[in-house]
């Protein structure tokens, strides 16, 4: 058996460890627990996710891994997915059949947009085709603004991208975050109409796990059979005559793992530091990937405490000038969450570049969440329990040119036999994409490891 060190016990690193389980795997994790952004804990007697709460069920990796590690019976789907957006002074339904806020037809924008703004959006159907070949990259905001007008960007695209990336439409790469729009080569609405069927498949779009998403990390780690070293940040990766040495822990208590291969599954900043000597070109590129920080304020209310909380939740565009960017009525969306007679709500704060709100203390963040719920849901009284989870460096920002940057990183890493990278920094921040990335890192290494064994 070969010996492999996986650095980082988020879902990407754990998926890599699981895919490499025919070998001896050691996972080196800097924090005192595994899971990274997957963590479930108790709020007022109810288990609620602190970070990711669900995953896409229409791609195979999330469901596949959950089933492979014995969680098939724990898979659940949302009880409601009807989400709204704050627009023109009140909450309004999101247009059906849309991709990141770009709808299949202009009519469905009525309400979220004023009549002149809807007319402007309809110009997308008549606007001339671009004279470039569509191969270049630009921001989602630039493309959608040009085709449908700024109102669509501000009221729909920005809040939706804020929900997934904690990022901004005018900064995020269209090729990396909304490839369905990038390839449109003409009307974006027609492209959406082609890609989103009129009759939606009855198959659920999202899934979660009854015990919470933290259970996925636990089960994957267990089934991988890997040794997991906790509370020991990797400090350097050295290349030896044969294989590598991963040095971890403080200088006063330095230890290392010798390995035939290494998977680096940490966010871009630590990945860049670890690769500085081994793959300097990759390290330089990794250093340019910015992260957005955020906080999740979870509150538990008596069932009559939020009279107008309906549906799965809502989004708030940045131009509303409010600190909360998204609200999930968690116990309405997921029937397995919560206790009878209570409503669990998660409020999300923090967008890329907007750090001031996150400098406020926990009491202030709870007050901001309560004020938001008073405005939109008629909140009465006080929540019976609260929890503030801070995610510093939560989500990588796929800036314009991201896919080319990732190609350069991957090429520089592939030039070092036995080295692979994976995680949210590269080809998707969602859980299935991170799993795919971890499995791809394993696939990259397995042929070499099997050849070495012969
Ligand atoms: C609040 C929030 C909500 C989200 N909601 C969803 C959702 O509902 N659905 C969805 O699909 N996605 C969601 N995401 C995105 C998704 O959860 C993440 O992109 C994904 O979990 C990242 O996995 P990862 O393994 O790449 O990184 P991480 O989870 O960040 O794991 C990296 C690990 O590396 C460790 N590490 C860092 N430096 C070192 C070092 N030097 N040595 C050793 N270890 C180190 C860290 O401690 C961490 O455990 C959400 C993200 C956040 C922040």
In short:
With 454 residues, the chain is α+β, with helices and mostly antiparallel strands. It has helices spanning 11-19, 60-68, 115-122, 140-148, 150-165, 174-177, 179-182, 188-195, 214-224, 268-275, 280-286, 330-333, 362-377, 402-414, 431-453; strands spanning 3-7, 24-28, 40-43, 46-49, 55-56, 75-76, 83-87, 90-93, 98-99, 102-103, 206-209, 227-229, 234-239, 244-248, 255-259, 261-264, 291-302, 313-315, 324-328, 342-349, 385-396, 419-421.
3D structure, described in words:
This protein is of the alpha+beta class. The protein has three domains: 3-34 and 213-289 and 399-453, FAD/NAD(P)-binding domain (3-Layer(bba) Sandwich), CATH 3.50.50; 86-195, protoporphyrinogen ix oxidase, domain 3, CATH 1.10.3110.10; 291-396, Polyamine Oxidase, Chain A, domain 2. The protein has helices at residues 11-19, 60-68, 115-122, 140-148, 150-165, 174-177, 179-182, 188-195, 214-224, 268-275, 280-286, 330-333, 362-377, 402-414, 431-453; strands at residues 3-7, 24-28, 40-43, 46-49, 55-56, 75-76, 83-87, 90-93, 98-99, 102-103, 206-209, 227-229, 234-239, 244-248, 255-259, 261-264, 291-302, 313-315, 324-328, 342-349, 385-396, 419-421. The strands form six sheets. It has a seven-stranded mixed sheet. It has a five-stranded parallel sheet with strand order 12-2-1-16-22. Strand 9 (98-99) and strand 10 form a beta hairpin. The mean pLDDT is 95. Bound molecules: flavin-adenine dinucleotide. Flavin-adenine dinucleotide binds at residues 7-13, 28-31, 36-38, 51-55, 233-234, 265-267, 270, 294, 296, 391, 394-395, 423-424, 429-431, 434. Residues 7-13, 28-31, 36-38, 51-55, 233-234, 265-267, 270, 294, 296, 391, 394-395, 423-424, 429-431, 434 line the site of flavin-adenine dinucleotide.
């Amino acid at each position: 058996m070969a010996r492999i060190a996986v650095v980082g016990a988020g879902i990407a690193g754990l998926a890599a460890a699981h895919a490499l389980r025919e070998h001896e795997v050691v996972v080196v994790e800097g924090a005192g627990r595994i899971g990274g952004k997957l963590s479930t804990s108790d709020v007022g007697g109810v288990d609620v996710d602190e970070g990711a709460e669900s995953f896409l069920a229409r791609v195979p990796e999330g469901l596949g891994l959950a089933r492979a590690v014995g969680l098939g019976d724990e898979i659940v789907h949302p009880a409601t997915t009807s989400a709204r957006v704050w627009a023109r002074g009140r909450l309004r339904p999101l247009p059906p059949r849309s991709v990141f806020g770009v709808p299949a037809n202009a009519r469905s924008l009525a309400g979220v947009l004023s009549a002149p703004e809807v007319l402007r959006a309809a110009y997308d159907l008549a606007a001339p085709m671009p004279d470039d070949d569509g191969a270049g990259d630009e921001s989602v905001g630039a493309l959608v603004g040009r085709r449908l007008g700024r109102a669509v960007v501000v009221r729909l695209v920005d809040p939706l991208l804020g929900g997934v990336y904690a990022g901004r439409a005018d900064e995020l790469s269209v090729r990396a975050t909304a490839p369905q729009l990038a390839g449109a080569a003409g009307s974006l609405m027609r492209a959406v109409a082609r890609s989103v069927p009129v009759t939606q498949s009855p198959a659920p779009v999202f899934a979660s796990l009854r015990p919470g998403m933290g259970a996925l990390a636990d089960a994957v780690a267990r089934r991988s059979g890997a040794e997991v070293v906790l509370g020991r940040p990797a400090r350097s990766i050295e290349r030896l005559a044969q294989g590598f040495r991963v040095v971890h822990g403080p200088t006063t208590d330095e230890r290392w793992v010798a390995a035939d291969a290494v998977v680096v599954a940490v966010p871009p900043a630590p990945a860049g530091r670890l690769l500085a000597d081994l793959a300097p070109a990759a390290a330089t590129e990794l250093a340019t990937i910015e992260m957005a920080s955020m906080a999740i304020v979870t509150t538990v209310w008596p069932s009559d405490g939020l009279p107008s909380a309906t549906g799965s939740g809502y989004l708030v565009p940045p131009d509303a000038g409010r600190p909360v960017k998204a609200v999930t009525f968690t116990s309405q969306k997921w029937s397995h969450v919560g206790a009878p007679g209570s409503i669990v709500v998660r409020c999300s704060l923090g967008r890329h570049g907007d750090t001031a709100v996150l400098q406020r203390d926990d009491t202030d963040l709870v007050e901001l969440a309560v004020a938001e719920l008073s405005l939109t849901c008629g909140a009465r009284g006080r929540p019976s329990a609260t929890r503030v989870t801070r995610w510093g460096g939560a989500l990588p920002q796929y800036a314009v040119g991201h896919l080319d940057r990732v190609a350069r990183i991957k090429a520089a890493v592939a030039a070092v036999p036995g080295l692979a990278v994976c995680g949210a920094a590269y080809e998707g921040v969602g859980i299935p994409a991170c799993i795919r990335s971890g499995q791809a890192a394993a696939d990259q290494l397995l042929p070499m490891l099997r050849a070495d064994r012969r």
